[in-house]
Design goal:
Layout lengths: L2 H5 L4 H5 L5 H9 L11 E6 L11 H14 L3 E6 L5 H4 L6 H21 L3 E6 L4 H12 L3 E5 L6 E2 L6 E2 L1 H12 L5 H10 L12 H12 L14 H20 L3 H4 L2 H14 L4 H13 L5 H8 L16 H6 L4 H9 L15 H5 L25 E4 L7 E5 L7 E9 L2 H10 L6 E5 L14 H9 L7 E4 L10 E7 L16 E5 L4 E4 L3 H10 L10 H9 L14
Helix pairs in contact: 4-11, 6-7, 7-14, 8-9, 8-20, 10-13, 10-14, 13-14, 13-15, 19-20
Length: 566
């Protein structure tokens, strides 16, 4: 064995080399290794394939493409699996408590398999909200040459009557229209039947597409991996190229933490804002930075947001879906616009082995006449839609997604619910009226446990025609498909005695997305008196993964990671 070959096999050589490793080699022969494969670097291909959700139902095929790419480049690939859960299917149910928890389970499992089996490099393929950041968290922890591949976006559904495009959020909003009496049961079923036509992640600039774009901007996936259709020749080629890129990174000695720098995270935040991306990007980028050993805080989102406009007119608050962005050239033209404007760090390294600026040097502009991505002279919003709010209701911070279409300030009276289900029943049943600020608590990382997303109530509000007349605040979080005057990630959360725990029906609340404050409009002495009298609930879960998560998880303002307290 040459020294050069050994240098490309820093981990697998420990597993396979020498007479005492004959048992190890014997096991590997049974899964397809031949004599010549033991001298090759081993590339783990993490597949999040599952028939649980359309987001991931095709990823087994993509994993085989990545395997072929790694093998053709001189490696020996091994495909292995990890879990995924469906946010869309569990939404509005107790099962949604497992969604954010699954991010940690995925990161732990990818790290565990790669570490145990001595993989020299890793390709991770994700296609839904939590397995995307979970995969990249594992790559950062392992710090072995690695590439992330996005499974790709779904095609839009087409309504049989109106011929309008629709997606999963269309279904959630149709539920509200049905409750308001504006859509009959047959009409609701038509939307249900057409919205999800096949494989791929939810089609707007929701959390999956947001995080895929953020990770491309971070430098951890190949150019345009984020804006390809799930079922397309381009996506299959992306996977083959990723397999080869993992070998190239191994040869060049480039590891994830060489790429995932402070400036790279600033690039990711910039792109998320320009795209009008999900509030979940705040949570997940904080978690990724934690795993990469990079100091990042919610205040960085506010700082960068002052100078970066929203340029993409994408759902949920905009007009278009990810498939439209794919058709006009994907993410590179937008990144080139941002780079030329001085809003990106062009010297950041990427998984191509080149810098951001080098990758974008020949990126063509968007075609004339398109209006999916606007010019700087006519932005959707001149500054960020992601607002970091502080105030006496959120002394540790909160995150709002306010496009400006719903206004920039809301004041109203609290109507308080101790769970998402209770709030949804009230919205659909007509108890929530114009001027209400819906308060949903006990849904934070600890209190949920699991920090459920609130797509059902936010969509019901829109479907009922109350999108501009009602606000919603919570210590839980929102789906990337949520829009309206909504504030989540309120910290400290209810379960640990945050001020949201003592809000009462009828209390005046002010949300100001210009001053970036969230205020319970009561005297400080009255709030303090309520907090002194407050008593925590007993933990909802005492055994199993949810109980472990509740004991370990940090606050939402720290990314809701589970090793910060260790």
């Amino acid at each position: 064995m040459s020294q050069r070959a050994d240098s490309l096999r820093p981990h697998s050589s420990v597993v396979t080399d020498g007479a005492d490793r004959a048992p190890n080699r014997s096991m590997l022969r049974a899964v397809g290794f031949a004599d010549g494969d033991f001298s090759k670097p081993i590339v783990g291909v993490a597949s999040t394939w599952s028939m649980v959700t359309p987001c991931n139902m095709h990823i087994d095929q993509l994993a085989r493409e990545a395997e072929a790419g790694a093998n053709a480049a001189g490696g020996k690939a091994i495909i292995f699996g990890t879990i995924t859960v469906s946010d869309g299917i569990s939404m509005g149910t107790p099962g949604m408590r497992y969604s954010l928890v699954s991010r940690e389970v995925i990161a732990d499992s990818v790290e565990t398999v790669a570490g145990a089996e001595g993989f020299d490099a890793v390709v991770a393929i994700g296609g839904c909200d939590k397995n995307i950041p979970g995969c990249v968290m594992a790559l950062a922890r392992l710090n072995r040459p690695g590439v992330f591949v996005y499974g790709g976006t779904i095609l839009p559904g087409i309504h049989p009557d109106s011929k309008r495009e629709c997606d999963i959020v269309s279904v959630f909003e149709a539920v509200g229209q049905h409750a308001a009496g504006n859509l009959d049961s047959a009409g609701l079923k038509k939307v249900e039947d057409c919205a999800i036509p096949g494989p791929g992640s939810c089609g707007g600039m929701y959390t999956a597409n947001t995080m895929a774009s953020a990770i491309e901007a971070l430098g951890m996936s190949l150019p345009n991996s984020s804006a390809q259709l799930a079922i397309s020749p381009e996506k299959r080629e992306d996977c083959r190229r990723a397999g080869a890129a993992a070998l190239a990174l191994l040869k060049a000695g480039i590891r994830p933490r060489d790429i995932m720098t402070r400036k790279a995270f600033e690039n990711a935040i910039t792109v998320v804002i320009a795209l009008g991306g999900s509030t979940n990007a705040v949570l997940h980028l904080l978690a990724l930075a934690h795993e990469a050993g990079v100091r990042l805080s919610i205040d960085d989102f506010a700082r960068i947001g002052k100078r970066v406009p929203v340029l993409a007119d994408l759902r949920p608050s905009g007009k278009y879906g990810m498939a439209h962005l794919s058709r006009i050239g994907g993410l590179p033209p937008l990144m080139k616009m941002l780079l030329d404007r001085g809003l990106l760090h062009g010297d950041c390294l990427t998984v191509t082995g080149r810098t951001v600026a080098e990758n974008l040097r020949d990126a063509p502009p968007y075609p004339p006449g398109q209006d999916v991505v606007r010019p700087f002279s006519n932005p959707v919003k001149p500054d960020s839609h992601l607002r970091i709010l502080y105030g006496n209701l959120a002394p540790g911070g909160a995150v709002a997604k306010i496009s400006g279409k719903e206004g920039l300030r809301f004041s109203g009276r609290a109507i308080v619910f101790e769970s998402e289900e209770a709030a949804l029943r009230a919205i659909l049943g007509g108890r929530v009226k114009a001027g209400h600020v819906i308060v949903i608590r006990h849904e934070g990382p600890v209190g949920g446990p699991g920090m459920r997303e609130m797509l059902s109530p936010t969509s019901a509000i829109v479907g009922k025609g109350l999108g501009k007349d009602v606000a919603l605040i919570t210590d839980g979080r929102f789906s990337g498909g949520s829009h309206g005057f909504v504030v989540g990630h309120i910290t400290p959360e209810t379960a640990v005695g945050g001020p949201i725990a003592v809000v009462r029906n009828g209390d005046p609340i002010v949300i100001d997305a210009v001053a970036n404050v969230l205020t319970l409009d009561l005297p400080a002495a009255a709030i303090k008196a309520r907090l002194r009298a407050w008593k925590p609930r007993k933990p909802r879960e005492t055994r199993g993964v949810l109980a472990k998560y509740a004991r370990l998880v940090s606050s939402a303002s720290e990314g809701a990671v589970t090793d910060k307290k260790l």
